[in-house]
Design a protein that fits this description.
alpha/beta, 8 helices, Rossmann fold, HAD-like_sf, 8 strands, sn-glycerol 3-phosphatase activity, 2 domains, PGP phosphatase
């Protein structure tokens, strides 16, 4: 939706749905200042009773050829900054998503592997959930970054170290055929 009128005072007068009790921030290629204004207004109106939920904190989404676009984390951060509060993240690395899956399916963490291309989401979630972790180097993480965390004495950095890594997810195909 467009901003209603030319001035900030007009923007603060756009109608709000009285039933809204949460603001969800996810990937949105049409994210705009108007949406940011509406999100803030809902959060201010509802106070702490209006939830601020984000899908993830990915700061960049890698594309083929080594390029990237801003990720959902940029949008979450914009709303958090405006609202001056932190979003509850339901996606990786928060274990909320894993706990939901475990509640529906018989999953043994000792027999489960988390495969991903990001240390700060995929590997961190896998490690915090007691899963074996496998990093694929075709995404945003380079092996030098892993080695830096591995050599650190910091527990937070150690939690980002995968159990295994492969250059490409295609490297797993022979093992899956067995």
């Amino acid at each position: 939706a467009a901003l209603p009128g030319p001035a900030p005072a007009d923007w603060a007068q756009a109608p709000l749905d009285p039933d809204v009790r949460a603001v969800l921030v996810g990937f949105d290629e049409h994210f705009s200042y108007a949406k940011l204004c509406q999100a803030l207004r809902y959060l201010l109106r509802g106070g702490p009773d209006c939830l601020l939920v984000g899908t993830n904190r990915d700061h960049r989404l890698p594309l083929e050829g080594g390029t990237a676009i801003p990720g959902t984390g940029c949008l979450v951060k914009a709303v958090e900054t405006a609202a001056q509060r932190e979003a509850f993240i339901v996606g990786k690395p928060n274990r909320y998503m894993f706990d939901c899956v475990v509640s529906e399916f018989d999953i043994d963490p000792a027999r489960t592997i988390m495969v991903g291309d990001r240390l700060d989401t995929d590997i961190l979630m896998g490690n915090s959930c007691g899963l074996t972790t496998l990093l694929t180097l075709t995404g945003v993480t380079a092996l030098d970054e892993v080695k830096g965390h591995q050599e650190s004495d910091c527990p937070a950095r150690q939690s980002l170290v995968p159990d295994y890594y492969v250059d490409s997810i295609a490297d797993l195909l022979p093992a899956l055929g067995e």
